[in-house]
Amino acid sequence: MKTVSLLLVEDDDIDAEALERALVAQRIGNPLHRACDGEEALEMLRGEGDHSPKLAHPVIVLLDLNMPRMNGFEFLKELRNDPKLSHTVVFVLTTSDDQRDRLAAYEAHVSGYIVKNHNAGAGFVEVAKLLESFWRVVEFP
Question: Rounded to an integer, what distance in angstroms lies between the CA atom of residue 88 and that of residue 6?
Fold first, then answer.
């Protein structure tokens, strides 16, 4: 089985650290990379700028929506318009429970929409379990 890399696109250091701890707690050793906004994430996926070589595929993106420079929706638009990246698996991981955001995310073909709960530690453990189950069952190209 090919190793799946994780790309966390998250500007909040506390949430990023909580997810990293949850992955460690679940003994998930997949490579975890972090971008602080959509622009940096696209550079990492494309291997541009200081991010050469590009991330090894397959990649699962965990995407926050509310970020500086390029937010999650702007990132999704760019990602889906790039023929080399358009099929990237993306899970939204956000505090937004707004129905409009959920609809817009699914219209951009995300694989799932996960609302961060107030108990971040336990919530991120559940996210880690979901991801592990996902890549164990799903076949990647």
Answer: 11
DSSP string, 70-133: S-HHHHHHHHHH-TTTTT-EEEEEES---HHHHHHHHHTT-SEEEE--SSHHHHHHHHHHHHHH
> Which residue type, as a one-letter code, is found at position 119?
N
Q: Which of 51, 72, 77, 74 is nearest to 62 (CA)?
A: 72
Find out whether the peptide bond into 141 is cis, omega within 30 degrees of 0.
no
Cβ atoms 42, 76 nearer than 8 A: no
CATH number, domain at 33? 3.40.50.2300
Residue 48: give the domain boundaries.
5-137
Residue that is written with structure tokens 């994780």 in the block: 6
88-99 pLDDT per residue, tens: 999 999 988 999
Contact criterion met (CB below 8 Å) for 72 and 9: yes
Rounded to two decimals, the pTM is: 0.89
